[in-house]
Amino acid sequence: MQTRAPHVVGRDREVTALAGALGRTRTGQGGAIFLTGEAGIGKSRLARYAAGQAYGEGIRVLKGRGTTIGPMVPFRPIAEALLALFRGEPPDDSALGPYKPVLGTLIPEWHDHQSTTESVVVLAEAVLRLLASVARTTPCLLVLEDLHDADAETLAVIEYLADNLEDQPVLLLATSRNEPGNALELIHRIVQRGAATALELRRLTQAEVERMTAACLESEQIPGELSDRLWTDSAGNPFVIEELLHGMVSSGLLVAGADGWQVLGELKLPVPAAFVRSVAHRTDRLGPQGREVLSIAAVLGHRFPLSVVQRVTGTDDRHLLSHLHAGVAAQLVTPDEPAPDWYAFRHPLTAEALLAQLAPNERADLSRRTADAIEHLHPGLTGDWCPLVAKLRFDAGAPDEAGLLFAEAGRRALSSGAAGSAVTLLDRAQRLLTGEPRAGVLDTLLPALAETGEFERAFEFEKDVAELKDGPGKAKLHTRLARIAHQAGRFPFGVEQVRIARALLGPDAPDELTAQLDVTSAYLSLISPSADRVESAASLARQAAEAAARAELPAVACEAWQLLGVIAREQDLDEANRCFDRALALADAHQMPIQHIYALVRLAGNDWLADGSTTTLDRAHSEACRTGAITVSYSVKAILALQLVLAGEYDEAAVQVETCLAATGRLRFHSLTRYLLMVKATLAAHRGHRPETDEAVAMFDAVAKSGAQEVPLCYGLARAFCALLEENHVLAMQELDLAEAEESKNPTPFHLSGSHGLRVLLAVLDGRCGWSDYDVLVKSSAAGMRWNRQFADLAHAVLLGRDGKHAEARQAFESAQEAAALYPMARHLGLRLVAPEASDWGDPVTWLRSAEEHFHQAGIPAVASACRGLLRQSGASVQQRRSGTDQVPKQLRGHGVTVREFEVFVLLADRMGNKAIGTRLHISPRTVEKHVASLIAKTGQPDRESLSAYAAALSR
């Protein structure tokens, strides 16, 4: 008979919680529940109960679990669960967009060789979107068992899902042992921040043990001594109760009679020896061949494939199935639900008990034979087989073979984007190997550590590298360390690693070694503060491209040409495009999708910088979405958001910025988050919103590292414009000076910070810059980029006008207007700035009227007021503006403060004198004094000092 409880006993609290969660899921409020507890406590039983309830309520159930077969395999439980969606009608993928190719990592039907490898967080977002898409028609229960056996990538996906399922009709139910480890730490973190519920299953009480025993034996009459012994020996563990009962019944110690169950003999079953002896007794009854079958299965792990067991034993199909059916009858094994050729032990403790009975030499022999069988059945050891055979070779006492296999499994994991699993496998490999094989493992382990952000741990291997025998392999590892140092911002360390690598290679090193070293050295040179940094970096990158071509290293050559394009962009956009075209051709010829996308985006970026066109950027975004290059797609969207700001499409830009920020924050794209916060600051600044500008810059500072490349843009593209829209030209120039200083300290690939555009114009206007300085500043290609060109051409017009070359000045002005056509705010600001200089060669009155109208409609009173003041000074009639009272705070409007008085009030916060205020507002100092006196009377302040303090407090 089957001595298993037909229903759940002693879990009323958990059953109620699960029922409530399923009910909320049906109404669209999902979440996550973790069942934790010791082995055998009933986690899987409760998960099966929840799955049964879900089926009955019309909820779709997806199931997967971790496995002890070999080392952890990336994404195994997630993939197993999602593949159930494809056993019938495949799910609708129309809502997945660029995330569909990303899921090719888990779903073979969606795998595309042109897909790119994205981060685990991006994959987690893809899984979330797939579940949400499926659950739109039918709510889902995702059951993931044995998280203690899951890989780091699976745990990362689970954490992401738990944080984002609250508003989806999807319930995540996961089980894990309560043993110290990554899974339990993860569960604690998620629960502490309120993203999930943890239900820790306790042991059964004595009364509950009695109820469970009665349920198993289907009788209310249970011998008292049996109940007492089960309570004592099982310690309330449900699995042990069932195993002990089965052993007693099978051995004849417990029999059913006319008067109920009776105990024959003495009950003496020490635990855990009782359980081990129970398993041994049942396996002995299966005979030698049956015992061998299960021992081989135990060597494989909790789950095992029949094909491998059959190959090791040499048993025919009939006898093998006979032994397995006997094992099922003995409640030792059970068919594995998702895969027909696989079986599983009823509980991990069963496999452990079988292994405990094997002598060390028996276990080693079985491990060796099993590894041989797998290699015969699965040449090349694809998928999970490679790490499994690695473990078996290790158990068989062959550390060198095991190390090489762990290394290969680690390389495969890294290439598939599972960097966390790769680190685990490669670290195990390097501990088993020595000499050149170990150096080969470190060559892969170091970039894997960089991928997971474990930079310091990577640097710790410098000592190990230094102890290796001098030669090309050692030089290659120093090159790896240099590259990681560049990623981590440890530039002096990187330069030193390059020096060591070059010394090891000598002057006659082969191209395949110097190519990557020169690329890395070029990156380090480009960010150095030296005067010849550009020339040095370009020379090194070109050397790398030539060496990579000779050595047939297309990936290195592609990287080198892209770097050459970035370098050339500073002086010649056409040359930059030629470099990017070379990179694109290489990527296409050698089927490198991610390099193809990067080259395409850089070409599109050049088009945007040159003429403001977003056509190729839109195409690049579509291509990135098609191939699943999520990071690149958000990079393009960030550039498009900035273009919306510059083009004055502020409302649309605001929506795009906030949407992208939500996504990049969730996906942990830190560099993109920095860039978008810069765009957000620029958006607020170009609208003349000082508090929002300062707030966005503060948010940027909070996430930016020292020397972040967007810092000059925060000064020159955001804060400088905000100052200009406040008519504070001195502050604007100070911000632009800071932008230039930052670029000098930390060279940046961004070219819109004003050094080649707005700063040139302001410097010409205030007399700081003449022809010689102008010629130097506009010499670079950056001055010809459309956004910069509108300001550089205005500066040119002013200089020509001062020299009396009026026709040429008008021509330069028209060129500036053509460039500025895409940028309404910048165009009208330029008109306001140059109008005072253009009385002899331009039409300043018409320009000022146009600018005044624009800034009045835009709600930027300071510039509108300045335009009116300049019009008055020129003798032109000025339209009286009565609107703008909404700019005056409510408490001041209540005192009757006018718009003009409020403009004076704002400037008083900076303790400015009458002359300075008059200059800013284009009114006389005497008029300012009248406004100050009126403000003192209206606000009830005793004197000017108190009024200034009040203005400062109100502005905060």
What share of residues is helical?
Answer: 55-70%
Strand content: 5-15%
What is the multimeric organization of the chains shown?
single chain
Calculate the mean pLDDT score and round it: 88
Strand tally is: 10
Q: Count of DSSP helices? A: 48
- Report the C-alpha radius of gyration, rounded: 36 Å
Low-confidence stretches: none
Main β-sheet description: 5 strands, parallel
Going across the biggest sheet, name each strand in turn. Answer: 2-3-4-1-5
Q: Could you tell me how far the N terminus lies from the C terminus, measured between alpha carbons in angstroms?
A: 80 Å
Class derived from helix and strand content = mainly alpha
Overall body shape: elongated
Short description:
With 956 residues, the chain is mainly alpha-helical.
